[in-house]
UniProtKB/TrEMBL annotation:
It holds the Pfam family TrmB. Residues 110-204 form the Transcription regulator TrmB C-terminal domain. This is TrmB family transcriptional regulator. Residues 9-75 form the Transcription regulator TrmB N-terminal domain. It comes from Bacillus swezeyi.
Length: 275
């Protein structure tokens, strides 16, 4: 428990000695410098330097006298102060960095992303910057991690359209359920994710290999346009299948299996993108 609190304080920009001194004061106060050193384990040769640093930063209070005594800023107040300071810093950063527009090179490059978490983090960022429309092709196993950002985008008026592999419920989006998610997972030996925002950027790749998952992010129109249009054509096909399934399956087999086999280059009719 104590180790966890010390670790949290480090994330709030406390040094190891500052963390120990502040926690000691939370547990018992007021304390003299000598008592704080004894209780916290901070060396006596360092304790007054550490306490002075906390006083200057406003994390503890000191009462000067013959023997100075110290008390902590209450934990709730400390957290509130840190949060306000962080928000001010982020606001200043946003104002400053918005001066730097994306260079033309951003639209010419294709950026590789490795690792499932890293891929999903990039998609989250793209979701929050979308203004008009989001197209997302995703498996139910991955959807939950993006749901809060997608919901937030929908609340600000972004049209969210999802091609779902597996049962995905999203009252904020137009969801098209693909009825062959299990078979497709086996056929492709994994799950992929395809994301397009505002016809201006895409993220696409495999997300089922953990740290070895690979995807690409780009604003290159030579990729944004065809990837986005393929997703739109998937939606066309799903609408057509919904209304004319019997006729199409009579010609091309259940779930259009004959078409998939016709255009496969492997004898097992599976995809082998993942080696």
């Amino acid at each position: 428990m104590k180790e966890n609190i010390l670790e949290i304080l480090k994330h709030l920009n406390f040094t190891e000695y500052e963390s120990k001194a502040y926690l000691a004061l939370l547990e018992e106060s007021p304390l003299t410098g000598y008592a704080a050193a004894k209780k916290s384990g901070v060396p006596r040769s360092k304790i007054y330097e550490v306490l002075e640093s906390l006083v200057i930063r406003g994390d503890i209070f000191v009462s000067y006298g013959n023997t100075p005594q110290y008390i902590p800023v209450p934990a709730k107040e400390l957290i509130k102060n840190r949060r306000l300071k962080a928000e001010e810093t982020f606001e200043q950063a946003e104002k400053y960095f918005e001066k730097f527009e994306r260079s033309a090179n951003d639209r010419e490059n294709i950026w590789n992303i490795t690792g499932r978490s890293e891929i999903l983090d990039k998609v989250k960022a793209c979701i929050l910057s979308a203004q008009k429309r989001i197209l997302l092709e995703i498996w139910k196993e991955d959807f939950k991690e993006l749901e809060p950002e997608l919901r937030q985008a929908a609340k600000k008026g972004v049209n969210v359209i999802i091609i779902a592999y597996g049962d995905i419920e999203a009252d904020f989006a137009n969801v098209y359920l693909h009825d062959r998610s299990r078979e497709i997972t086996e056929e492709y030996d994994g799950r992929w994710l395809v994301f397009s925002a505002d016809d201006s950027e895409v993220v696409a790749g495999m997300v089922s290999q953990g740290k070895d998952s690979r995807a690409a992010w780009t604003m290159h129109v030579g990729l944004v346009m065809p990837i986005t249009e393929v997703m739109i054509h998937d939606l066309y096909l799903m609408e057509i299948m919904e209304k004319h399934r019997e006729v199409l399956e009579e010609s091309f087999g259940e779930n259009l299996i004959h078409l998939r086999r016709k255009f496969s280059i492997h004898p097992d009719f599976k995809k082998h993108y993942v080696k």
